[in-house]
Write a structure and sequence with these properties.
- The structure holds two protein chains of two kinds.
- Helices cover 36% and strands 15% of the residues of chain A.
- In chain A, a hairpin with a 4-residue loop joins strand 13 and strand 14.
- Chain A is elongated.
- In chain A, the strands form five sheets. In chain A, strands 11-12-15-10-16 form a five-stranded parallel sheet. In chain A, strands 1-2-4-3 form a four-stranded mixed sheet. In chain A, strands 5-8-9 form a three-stranded parallel sheet, with helices on both faces.
- Chain A folds into two domains: 163 residues, Ribosomal Protein S5, domain 2 (2-Layer Sandwich); 305 residues, 3-Layer(aba) Sandwich (Rossmann fold).
- Chain A is of the alpha/beta class.
- By secondary structure, chain B is an alpha/beta fold.
- Chain B has three domains: 80 residues, no CATH class; 186 residues, Rossmann fold; 53 residues, Winged helix-like DNA-binding domain superfamily/Winged helix DNA-binding domain (Arc Repressor Mutant, subunit A).
- In chain B, the strands form two sheets. A nine-stranded mixed sheet of chain B has the order 1-2-6-5-4-3-7-8-9, sandwiched between helices. A two-stranded antiparallel ribbon of chain B has the order 10-11.
- In chain B, strand 5, helix 9 and strand 6 form a beta-alpha-beta unit.
- In chain B, helix 3 crosses helix 4 and helix 14 crosses helix 16.
- The longest helix of chain B is centred in the middle third of the chain and has 16 residues.
- Chain B is elongated, with a radius of gyration of 23 Å.
- Classes of the chains: A alpha/beta, B alpha/beta.
- Chains A and B meet through helix 7, strand 16 and helix 21 of A and helix 15 and helix 16 of B.
């Protein structure tokens, strides 16, 4: 007898609907799964057999064939367990096939018949949301945003009873213990930063204009401190952004149990020993999202940028431009989001003090250190600012009041609204003709930029980036009108022409 | 084969393993170089010319014979000519006169460019490879001012002060007296590679020379040895910035041994980059505050005011003046300037630009640095 159950599998951060067909026929007892299952998916046989028996059903001593359609899609993971078990029960006439009609089931089975939560429940529920859906009770809170009508199930036995109407559907485990989401972790506040007037301005401009930022300075200058406060300046996520963030978190298996969608932008700071796959995403089978996707709509902070292998950094260049990363393997490919704001921090030289007289690095060391960051990568940083450690005298001085993140966030939101009026999400995306149109220059500012390009201290591309930064400065002040010399000069202070002191003059 | 100039043989000898300036001079002293070359090929070299090397005399003679057997002097000579490299040797007409009386002259000198430029009075401008903006500007100003006044600037084409002096000397278009660079590696690979464009500019107007044959890379011991040529060519040696030890101090030693005048540019007390120069002044070296002091040391009339000497700078007023005071003599970040001045970032950016325009301040690598004075053409 044949039964048909609907479920879905995850590739990258997208769910794909899968039809689980189970055929029970007479013959020598066997249990085969066909339709491109990988090893983790084929293991379902043993879990299903045990779970069916321990749930009080009988496992049919027949020839069982499970087909996972479409058969050209590679399936991995235990998410199909529940669907396979129900299919076996329906095909062996222990469950009425009509109960499974049109419904979709997600979940991993334990040997005792318990239904375990699965990775990526949110994107999986999205593709199945058009019909009745049953998810593991551990995932119920997570999927509520996309599939409000989804039922929860705790065990195979309980699921069958609820389907038959013999028992009520279990309540969604609520409220789950409040576990803060990665991005919702209470972000430190900008008011804790002492000194660094330009550093504060730089992170404000970065937040408002979406400009990638490179912070250079000796150890203890406060690079990490500023970078960690950048997310607190970003406005709350809107509905589509928070859904995108939740989708990636769910696919990475990092969803919070607390329910609801994340409201605050994520902040990720991978260590420099992270592998390329951990950064950009991938893996041979499952194509998990990497750090750049987890940081999408938020901030990716790379501390000690110069310590990252050059190949890893250059792998970021294309996602930086396109906002997505296409992870392609021989059998499978996925497009993952990568719309992150990149913040890098680095020392200026191996000892950290250049060009101060305290620096004892040789010229060869300096130029070697400077070569670690490729020109094309440095070019992508719209803001490049040097920080020095605060004066020791200021450290223990009474704290003067400085603006808090909330106050700055209000200005940032205003500037972002102006950018949206121009048809882009942030000023970073303004290029070419759009920049000409929205960031007109006063004649004197044109002269200044032209002189800089003629002197060779500024590239044409650099001049256009400088212009975008100056426009963001103007937006933050709420001024309109053409950019003046002062705006360009201040933008220049935030975007040093040559960052690392390795180049001899 | 007899038609070959004897520089061809010397050039080949200079390229043999373990042959430095001293051994080359001993080899050249053995008699006609053609005969010495054939003795080298046959492995019949008198033991008194052999340098003390760890491999032993017999092995050294064998390795010379093997290396010499692989070199054809006439082919090598053609290669040199094709590369545009001139060769002069001690005693030949084109050899710099200043070197003929030297206690330790290079036997052979390879050069690119015009060797006659050393006929002008020569002044060495040397200093640390890691200068401050101040030192860089002084070196640049000296290079530009001296070459405009017909003084040949000699330096080592190293990073830092050397490069700044050379850049100053070739920067103003057609210098009255083109500069000379003495490098420590073969002319086909002048070191450091970052200065190769500058080396080409120096060779185009003046001369780049070396006693190291083509194809020999730089080795650490070559640089102090090279410094003796810099000191020997120059009548006055100006040290712009230098630590208590270092290559510039070795040039000073060579200069004192040769009775050359040594001038030092004073710098801030306590700055490591001026430790050596301030010490030199304490020990009795002349003080160099500009082109005029160098001209006086050369025994030339001091240029009339306005020519060669710095135009007076009016002290900037307002925020720019305050920033200049706050800057001191070390590089500072704009962030620091905004913090300590307490002024609006936009006003600070404008004031820094003013200071850069009048030439009191330079921007380098994201830092703002005070410099000595207005330079006609700042090295970038």
């Amino acid at each position: 007898m044949l039964a048909n159950v609907t479920s879905a599998v995850l590739i990258g951060i997208d769910g794909h609907r899968v039809d689980v067909e189970v055929h029970v026929a007479s013959g020598l007892p066997s249990f085969t799964v066909v339709g491109l299952p990988d090893a983790s998916c084929r293991e379902a046989r043993d879990r299903v057999r045990a779970a069916v028996v321990t749930s009080g059903f009988s496992f049919p001593p027949s020839r069982i064939t499970v087909n996972l359609a479409p058969t050209d899609l590679r399936k991995s993971g235990p998410v199909l367990d529940v669907a396979v078990a129900l299919g076996v029960l329906a095909a062996s006439e222990q469950v009425e096939p009509g109960l499974l009609d049109r419904a979709a089931f997600l979940g991993e089975l334990g040997l005792d018949g318990r239904i375990q939560p699965v990775r990526g429940a949110l994107p999986l529920a999205e593709v199945l949301a058009d019909g009745p859906l049953v998810v593991p009770s551990g995932n119920a809170a997570e999927v509520r945003a996309v599939a409000p009508g989804a039922r929860a199930a705790r065990s195979l036995r309980g699921l069958v009873e609820s389907l038959r109407g013999d028992a009520p559907w279990p309540d969604v485990d609520d409220p789950a213990p409040p576990r803060p989401l990665d991005g919702d972790r209470a972000s430190p506040d900008l008011s804790e930063v002492r000194g660094h007037p330009l550093g504060r301005l730089a992170v404000e401009v970065a937040a408002a204009g979406g400009h990638h930022t490179l912070l250079v300075g000796p150890p203890g200058a406060g690079k990490t401190m500023l970078a960690e406060r950048l997310p607190s300046l970003l406005p709350d996520l809107d509905r589509s952004e928070s859904l995108a963030v939740a989708r990636v978190l769910s696919a990475a298996g990092r969803s919070a149990g607390g329910g609801g969608l994340p409201q605050r932008p994520p902040f990720r700071s991978p260590h420099h020993t992270a592998s390329v796959v951990a950064l950009v995403g991938g893996g041979s089978q499952q194509l998990r999202p990497g750090e750049i996707s987890l940081a999408s709509s938020g901030v990716l902070f790379l501390d000690e940028l110069g310590e990252f292998p050059a190949a890893h950094l250059d792998a970021l260049r294309q996602p930086l431009e396109s906002g997505t990363v296409d992870v392609v393997r021989a059998a499978v490919s996925a497009r993952l989001p990568a719309r992150f704001l990149l913040v890098g921090a680095t020392n200026p030289c191996p000892c950290g003090w250049a060009p101060d007289l305290r620096c004892r690095c040789s010229p060869a060391q300096l130029s070697r250190y400077a070569r670690r960051l490729s020109g094309p990568l440095l070019d992508r940083f719209d803001l490049r600012i040097h920080l020095d450690p605060p004066d020791p005298s200021a450290l223990f001085a009474p704290r003067e009041r400085t603006e808090s993140s909330v106050e700055v966030r209000r200005r940032v939101a205003g500037a972002r609204a102006l950018a949206r009026e121009r048809g882009v999400s942030t000023n970073r995306s303004l290029r070419g003709a759009a920049l000409e149109l929205h960031a007109p220059l006063e004649a004197s500012a044109v002269d200044l930029l032209r002189a800089r390009v003629e002197q060779g201290v500024l590239t044409v591309r650099g001049a256009s980036r400088l212009r975008a930064v100056a426009l963001t400065l103007l937006d933050l002040e709420g001024r309109r009108g053409p950019l003046g010399v002062d705006d360009v000069l201040l933008a220049e202070c935030l975007r040093s022409h040559d960052v690392l002191p390795g180049v001899p003059g | 084969m007899t038609a070959l100039p004897h520089e061809a043989y010397l050039a080949c000898m200079a390229g043999l393993p373990w042959v430095g300036p001293v051994t080359l001079r001993r080899l050249a002293g053995l008699g006609p170089v053609e005969r010495t070359w054939s003795r080298l090929v046959r492995g019949q070299v008198p033991t008194e010319v052999l340098p003390p090397v760890s491999v032993g005399a017999a092995a050294l003679v064998r390795s010379w014979a093997r290396a010499a057997g692989e070199v054809d002097p006439s082919r090598h000579w053609d290669e040199l000519r094709a590369a545009g490299v001139g060769v002069t040797s001690l005693g030949s007409p084109g050899y710099p006169a200043a070197l003929t009386e030297d206690p330790d002259p290079p036997v052979v000198l390879f050069h690119l460019g015009n060797p006659s430029v050393v006929a002008a009075p020569c002044v060495a401008v040397v200093g640390t490879r890691r200068p401050t903006g101040y030192g860089r500007e002084v070196a640049h100003t000296l290079g530009a001012g001296l070459s405009a006044l017909g003084v040949c600037v000699v330096s080592g084409l190293a990073l830092g002060i050397d490069a700044a002096a050379h850049a100053g000397a070739v920067g103003g278009g057609a210098p009255v007296a083109p500069p000379v660079a003495v490098v420590g590696a073969g002319l086909d690979a002048p070191c450091p590679s970052a200065n190769r464009p500058l080396a080409r500019r120096v060779a185009a107007s003046g001369m780049v020379c070396s006693e190291v044959p083509l194809g020999v890379p730089a080795a650490p011991w070559r640089f102090p040895v090279r410094n003796r040529i810099v000191a020997a060519l120059a009548r006055v040696v100006v040290v712009v910035e230098s630590g208590a030890t270092g290559g510039s101090m070795s040039t000073v030693e060579h200069a004192l041994r040769r009775d050359r005048t040594v001038l030092a540019v004073p710098g801030p007390v306590g700055a490591p980059t001026s430790e050596g120069t301030n010490r030199l002044i304490a020990d009795g070296a002349g003080v160099c505050t500009g082109v005029d002091d160098v001209l006086a040391a050369l025994g030339r009339d001091v240029a009339p005011p306005g020519r060669g000497s710095r135009p007076a700078l009016s002290a900037p007023s307002g925020l720019a003046g305050r920033l200049l005071d706050l800057l001191g003599w070390r590089p500072e970040t704009p962030d620091h300037l905004v913090r300590v001045s307490g002024a609006d970032p936009r006003a600070v950016a404008r004031a820094v630009e003013q200071l850069v325009e009048v030439g009191l301040v330079v921007r380098r690598g994201g830092f703002v640095e005070r410099c000595a004075g207005p330079a006609p053409d700042r090295p970038t």
